[in-house]
Amino acid sequence: MQLKNLGIAMVIIGIVMMAYTGFNYVTTEKVVDFGPIQVNKEVNHPINWSPIVGIVLAVGGIVLIVTNKKTT
């Protein structure tokens, strides 16, 4: 039962990773701190991955689900 749940989770995560190939997050960095004067800069940090990673996860999840059904 545990492998089946893991397989289902892997398939779902794989499909999401195929649909969304990345995301951005923003941090604020202090550029100037001169007494009461502060200048901040927002910096984008993109995180990207290949859709092939999602395909591999989905296929691996399907394999776990199928092999779990054969053993039980």
TrEMBL record:
The keyword Membrane applies. Keywords: Membrane, Transmembrane, Transmembrane helix. It comes from the Bacteria. The chain crosses the membrane at residues 7-27, 47-66. This is DUF3185 domain-containing protein. It comes from Flavobacterium zhoui. The lineage of its organism: Bacteria, Pseudomonadati, Bacteroidota, Flavobacteriia, Flavobacteriales.
